[in-house]
Inverse folding.
């Protein structure tokens, strides 16, 4: 589904990650992990086409680096804070891509919007403004908007960040439902270990010091693997120099 | 042995310096070292270690310390670090368990890390950095305007792809809501212009020409310029702040990832709205500006309403009004584009939004005056 080859990313003369290569298979939940400042969110921005790599290639569904000016992208994105448009209601936010990219009449759009909101547990919230809903609800609404055009691929930036444990678990359940029932491929940036261990099939771990990927594989197996202390400490929540 | 204590408050701590034979210096701290007294502790300990020479060994004897809080511990650890930088080996010794835990927490038991002194940036460096930032900004601005041209051409080619829903509400906010202040400001401008002009014209018995003065200056210059300045403060700042907030909360990124062109979706409706409302507001401003002159003419100069209007009609030509309207269209475009560009260039959270909003207003004002001067020279050159 996603093929990344020799990716180098950064700004001016500050390189964040060098020569990164990995792939994401169709239908899996794939996590991008790492400590603060290692470039997780920047990698996500490169994958969705918001940044241009300094070197390397990214291909999504065999189509080459996403060109966001070329029309409707083949994926949906949920940003960390939700990035809902404050002047539109929750329903209008979710319906916006449908109005832009489909010929559906207004009534049909309304039906799809209500169905998407029901799917993410926001039944009845379509007339609320983003300022009137909680952080967790904003993230759910953002997921509903990302799914509006029925993409096969979703990118989620820190979906559980800032949520209470119960809301985080509910969001994890939603992500698993989207994957298992709807067959979506999900790429998520996170450092919430309980979530990753529960929902991610595979992951990569970025390292700030070596500016490279230092681990790839099943997060549960990586937690048990003691060959790299950096990876072991991260997955077992051990302080540095332990 | 020297002992220093605070004598004006109940004794809570003390700093005692004791010089031992050949083994270096011991500085004994006693009592409760808490943050309310931190400034005094800092002063006294600093004074006590002033004379410690390079190569000496200093022990902070903590055996008498009953309690110490985090802030005071941080200061003591810092002093230890400055001593280390001077070549003095200093350690915290004989601390009780609770105090030792805090020493450990603030890394008072490890080798002090030598901090590299931050070198002050030289003037040449500052000039170089400012020049580089300036050209980066210019490149960003040119890129933005290039994108606007492409988006506008795309919209002309496929008009139905425009965000027309945004146009009317923007026109209402920028135009209709601005009418009261436009009326007030332009009325006062006409009033003041007439009042000042009347004082001079009266001397020559040329009272009636105040109508010419006000009519021409308001329609050709002051009407469009003052109205644009009002909209700069209202709409320009609003656009910059709104788009800046969207930028820092990733809403513009979200638009891009949904296949919306942010220029087409956000900038073009605003530009078109201002290009449409500013001429209308300008004409309203022209009218009330002249009414301000009428008021002065009738109350101060003894002119009649009919007489004033007749003179205005003689002095003004259609081109005088039309030239002001042409200016206002260009002003509207400038206000919208500069404000939106500043909004798109915002970084750095709330502080960045504030900075760019201020910068947009200043840039717009400067540009308006520049454009007005340009128009004046152009019209004069062609005898218009």
């Amino acid at each position: 589904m996603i093929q990344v080859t020799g990716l180098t990313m950064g700004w001016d003369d500050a390189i964040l990650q060098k020569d990164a290569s990995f792939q994401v298979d169709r239908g899996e939940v794939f996590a991008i992990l790492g400590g603060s400042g290692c470039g997780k969110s920047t990698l996500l921005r490169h994958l969705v086409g918001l940044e241009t790599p300094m070197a390397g290639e990214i291909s999504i569904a065999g189509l080459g680096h996403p060109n966001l000016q070329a029309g409707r992208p083949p994926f949906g994105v949920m940003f960390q804070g939700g990035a809902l448009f404050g002047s539109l209601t929750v329903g209008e936010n979710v319906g916006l891509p449908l109005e832009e990219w489909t010929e559906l009449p207004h009534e049909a759009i309304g039906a799809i919007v209500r169905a998407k909101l029901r799917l993410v547990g926001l039944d009845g919230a379509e007339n609320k403004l983003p300022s009137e809903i909680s952080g967790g609800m904003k993230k759910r609404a953002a997921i509903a908007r990302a799914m509006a055009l029925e993409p096969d691929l979703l990118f989620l930036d820190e979906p559980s960040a800032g949520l209470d444990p119960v809301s985080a678990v509910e969001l994890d359940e939603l992500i698993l439902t989207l994957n298992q029932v709807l067959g979506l491929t999900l790429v998520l940036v996170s450092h919430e270990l309980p979530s990753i261990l529960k929902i991610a099939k595979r992951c990569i771990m970025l390292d700030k010091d070596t500016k490279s990927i230092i681990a790839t594989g099943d997060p549960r197996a990586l937690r048990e693997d003691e060959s790299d202390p950096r990876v072991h400490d991260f997955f077992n929540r051990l302080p540095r120099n332990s | 042995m020297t002992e220093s204590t605070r004598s004006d408050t109940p004794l809570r701590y003390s700093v005692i310096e004791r010089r031992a034979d050949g083994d270096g210096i011991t500085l004994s701290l006693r009592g409760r070292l808490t943050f309310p007294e931190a400034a005094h502790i800092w002063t006294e300990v600093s004074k006590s270690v002033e004379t410690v020479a390079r190569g000496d060994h200093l022990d902070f004897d903590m055996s008498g310390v009953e309690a110490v809080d985090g802030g005071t511990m941080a200061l003591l650890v810092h002093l230890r670090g400055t001593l280390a930088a001077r070549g003095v080996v200093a350690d915290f010794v004989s601390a009780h368990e609770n105090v030792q835990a805090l020493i450990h927490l603030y890394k008072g038991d490890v080798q002090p890390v030598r901090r590299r002194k931050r070198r002050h940036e030289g003037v040449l460096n500052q000039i170089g950095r400012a020049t580089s930032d300036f050209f980066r900004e210019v490149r960003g601005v040119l890129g933005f305007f290039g994108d606007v041209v492409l988006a506008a051409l795309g919209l002309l080619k496929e008009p139905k792809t425009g965000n027309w829903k945004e146009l009317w509400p923007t026109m209402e906010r920028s135009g209709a809501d601005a009418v009261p202040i436009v009326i007030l400001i332009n009325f006062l401008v006409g009033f003041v212009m007439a009042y000042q002009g009347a004082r001079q014209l009266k001397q020559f018995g040329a009272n009636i020409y105040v109508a010419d003065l006000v009519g021409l200056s308001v329609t050709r210059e002051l009407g469009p310029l003052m109205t644009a300045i009002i909209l700069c403060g209202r709409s320009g700042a609003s656009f910059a702040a709104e788009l800046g907030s969207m930028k820092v909360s990733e809403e513009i990124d979200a638009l891009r990832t949904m296949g919306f062109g942010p220029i087409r979706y956000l900038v073009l409706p605003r530009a078109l709205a201002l290009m449409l409302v500013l001429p209308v507001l300008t004409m309203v401003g022209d009218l009330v500006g002249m009414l301000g002159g009428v008021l002065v003419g009738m109350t101060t100069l003894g002119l009649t309403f009919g007489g004033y209007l007749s003179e205005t009609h003689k002095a003004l030509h259609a081109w005088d009004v039309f030239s002001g309207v042409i200016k206002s269209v260009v002003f509207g475009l400038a206000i919208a584009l500069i404000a939106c560009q500043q909004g798109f260039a915002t970084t750095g959270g709330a502080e960045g939004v504030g900075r760019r909003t201020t910068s947009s207003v200043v840039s717009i004002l400067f540009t308006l005056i520049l454009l007005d001067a340009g128009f004046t020279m152009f019209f004069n050159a062609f005898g218009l």
Q: What stands out?
A: The first helix of chain A runs from residue 40 to 47.
